[in-house]
Write a structure and sequence with these properties.
Elements (H helix, E strand, L loop, with lengths): L2 E6 L3 H17 L8 E6 L13 E5 H4 L4 H6 L20 H9 L4 E5 L3 E3 L4 H10 L5 E4 L3 E2 L13 H7 L11 E2 L3 E5 L3 H20 L10 H12 L2 E4 L4 E3 L8
Parallel strand pairs: 1-2, 1-4, 2-3, 6-10
Antiparallel strand pairs: 4-9, 5-11, 6-9, 7-8
Helix pairs in contact: 4-7, 7-8
């Protein structure tokens, strides 16, 4: 089990929130000394230049997706982000951190929004939690769940029946349950399982934007997540996790 934190974090309000919350916790708890790493993708790597820690890795998002032209075409981060949060933000960009983490050998990856905080009080408490809550080939969350039923007209599921037919997905309706996104743990038996999950997720995103068959979810991330679970052979688990979002609407642009 090799653990890392990841956060896809863009624009100054959110880079500052990440630094003042989870990065501060990571450093204050000495989680690096427990072997944890923190991977960050951002359109503002300069905002993290003051952080000097070999276990905190900051990546320019355009470098992470340089070999993925569909992302660069459709998942646009404008110079002026006014009005982009939350409905117009390309949340699927988070997937590139999964690929990077898997390339680095991680198989227990906890993904956070920039405004997530912890109720844990020590590194020891967190490490014990991780050791006791590792479920290979599962996606785990403590956030709200949303359930699919055949013929749903909900925005998240309204194209599912067409996807199921197109990709010949054989699964129970409950296998398509999806989640809200601020706190997510991706757990693979190996890092290759995480890479496989990324491949499924990325293929769904690209298909959804290109709409080669006349339909696609595009940037509707919860709909894409719902399909990625059965297609990747993962399962979804709701569980208590010692992290939670602390949204401040003043952060939004």
């Amino acid at each position: 089990m090799k653990i890392c934190f990841v956060a896809d974090c863009h624009y100054p309000n959110y880079t500052q929130r990440l630094k003042s919350n989870l990065i501060k916790t990571f450093l204050d708890f000495g989680l690096d000394k427990n072997g944890l790493h923190f991977l960050i993708s951002t359109n503002r790597p300069q905002d993290f230049e003051d952080i000097q820690n070999e276990n905190i890795h900051v990546f320019d998002v355009d470098e992470l997706r340089k070999d993925y032209p569909v992302s660069k075409e459709f998942e646009i981060l404008p110079e002026d982000p006014t009005g982009i949060y939350p409905s117009r933000f390309p949340w699927n960009l988070e997937r590139f951190l999964l690929k990077k983490a898997s390339d680095m050998g991680f198989n227990y990856i906890i993904n956070f929004d920039s405004d997530v905080v912890t109720r844990a009080v020590s590194a020891e408490q967190l490490m014990k939690y991780f050791e006791n809550n590792f479920y290979p080939n599962h996606v785990m969350t403590n956030q709200a769940l949303m359930t699919y039923t055949k013929g749903s007209t909900n925005e998240i599921f309204h194209l599912h029946d067409r996807y199921i037919e197109k990709f010949n997905i054989i699964a129970e309706e409950s296998d398509f349950t999806t989640w809200d996104g601020p706190v997510i743990a991706y757990m693979g038996e190996t890092s290759q399982d995480i890479k496989n999950y990324f491949d499924v997720w990325n293929n769904l995103v690209e298909y959804g934007y290109k709409k080669e068959d006349g339909f696609g979810y595009g940037g509707i991330v919860c709909g894409v997540w719902s399909l990625s679970i059965p297609l990747s052979g993962f399962k979804l688990k709701w569980n208590d996790i010692p992290f939670y979002p602390e949204h401040k609407y003043s952060d939004r642009y």
